[in-house]
Design brief:
The protein is built from 32 helices and 14 strands. The chain has 697 residues and is α/β, with parallel strands linked by helices. Among the domains are: 165 residues, no CATH class; 68 residues, no CATH class; 186 residues, no CATH class. The strands form three sheets. It has a ten-stranded mixed beta sheet, with helices on both faces. α18 packs across α19 and α22 packs antiparallel against α23. 37% of the residues are buried. This is TRPM5 protein. Its main location: membrane. It comes from Chloropsis cyanopogon.
Amino acid sequence: MEEMETKLCSSDKEEAFKRELPYCIGEINFTASGKNHGKFMKVQSTIHPGIIFEVMLNKWKLPAPNLVISLVGGEENFQMKPWLRDTLKKGFIKAAESTGAWIFTSALRVGVTRHLVQAVRDLALASTSSTLSVIAIGIASLREIQHREILENTKSESLVHYQSDDNIQGPLYSLDHNHSHFILVDHTTPEEPDGTTKLRFTLEKFISEQRTGYGSKQLLIEIPVLCLLVNGGPGTLERICSGLENSAPWLILAGSGGTADILAAFMNDPQLIMPEAVEKQFKEKFPGESFSRKDILQWTVTIQNIISHQHLLTLHNFEQDGSEELDTVILKALVKACKSQSQEAKEYLDELKLAVAWNRVDIAKSEIFNGDVEWKSCDLEEVMMDALVNNKPEFVKLFIDNGANIYEFLTYSRLQRLYCSISQKCLLYELLLKKHEESKLTLAGLTGQQQNEQKEICPLFTLSEVSRVLKDFLHDACKGFYQDLRHGGKKKSDKTNTKRVPGPLDMNQKSENPWRDLFVWAVLQNRHKMANYFWAMGQEGVASALAACKILKEMSRLETETKAACIMKEAKYEQLAVELFSECYHNSEERAFALLVRKNQYWSKTTCLQLATEADAKSFFAHDGVQAFLTKIWWGDMSTSTQILKLICAFWCPFLIYTNLISFSEEKQSKNEPEPFRELDSLDSERTLFFSKEEDR
């Protein structure tokens, strides 16, 4: 009995809570359009926009938008030009899909909205994904909706059956069944002014102040909101003016007619905004209507106010400038809006993050890194991390060219985060996971604790595990990788010698060789375009290319996916080593020979010949320079021109060695000639070799 009373009390509380909610939610079944249905929310015009946004995310389970495009204008039927229909159906939807956008419309089956959301529905039907990439949200007043009585009397969590009518000529219109979600604005009394436009504006303003994760979810940006003006009647001017006062950027489609064309006419010549010119424009664009002098004067002032915010207005005529994609135009409009506010780099960061997320390096070059802003290395750290994680080498190069300091950026902590961000589908993830499980078993054995059977969802790999994976491939060539041998290690003594035991790595320490570490990270993930850039920027190029050759040959044997294995086999690292050594050999034969046996500092004191042997680099060994060096080693101090017959005679009669039968090479070195082996102990030996001829001159 007590349990039943408790349930009743709980049920009563829930019902009371629902009654107190400032909104009513449910679903609409469009009976005349097959299986189409949508979710709706009925709210008062005075509701706080944060409540609506919370319902969208938590009740409707919508993913947070990366962009909100608010369609304004075209709310009545008009003759739509073919180019405009194509722009909306193809370009606009493509831009929204590539950015993961929400589209706000008038919700009604009329004008531009009807054509646009039909394209959204076609995209959803063609998609194989269960989640919507473009979400069309209609916002409308109940006063404007045909059959509104069905919606006015509905209760929360109910299913409403709605009959659409395509033959309505106004002033009431049916809801468009191609929307996935609706926000329906109710009013307390019939005399209450329509607050739908104001509510929509405050909702857009609220969303633009929220931050969301973008790209790899490591980028946090304020959600950009862009208003798109298509056609539009005279009443649209006040809507535009209100938006501009709150710094909302606008994209105006010139040539779409109505208010859009009127504003386009005055954008380039603001001094022409006079009552007579305004009246002429309105008569041309709305020939069937008459306007009072009072309206003309009011609109003149409003247009002057709008045109004064040119930095927030982007005018584009797709009929004339149709070569640019709409997503390019949208991003340029957002960048243009932030340019006027400040010349500080931080003001451009959100737009730069958008360019990275949309993979538009061309826009980043032309609109952001155009010399107007001075970027510091610390400003680019977040976007650099995202570009690395998401395999965008063009952006990595762009950031480094414009102020990013890779030596300041790459700490061991960031390098470890890069390894933790790898895809679970790549071979490296499996190899690291195996080492990670081994580490857990070892730790459990040392501490005497029982191993937890529960599998980690996202294991945090360490650089120690990375070094163990590399050791399986490179053996001694990676000895000491990601271990502190300088400060953190302790000395361990025995009877014969004293050794320094590697200590724990300071994760805040900067990488000693960031180019090599990023190069290895990229090679291990089969990201060869990225790896080639790091290789070109780094040192010890021949050794690095041969090490990569060895890594990929080992990984290709383990790779089960055919495509990935083919990519590994097609990598040209051995060819890179051959080409670079050829340059060295043509510049200086002696220095090139020294390069082959010089101990490479960043590859654990191994030589190029050792790495080439490990990698079984046949093409490298077949190079004339390498063959000449090996021949020189084989002959030793004997002259390579010595005939074989003389060697046989000396073998049977050793006393002949002391005669002049066998000639030896000159051992004396000119005092003015530098010692090549000692000179090539520097880290930039390959680069030194490129300019040796000029130095000798």
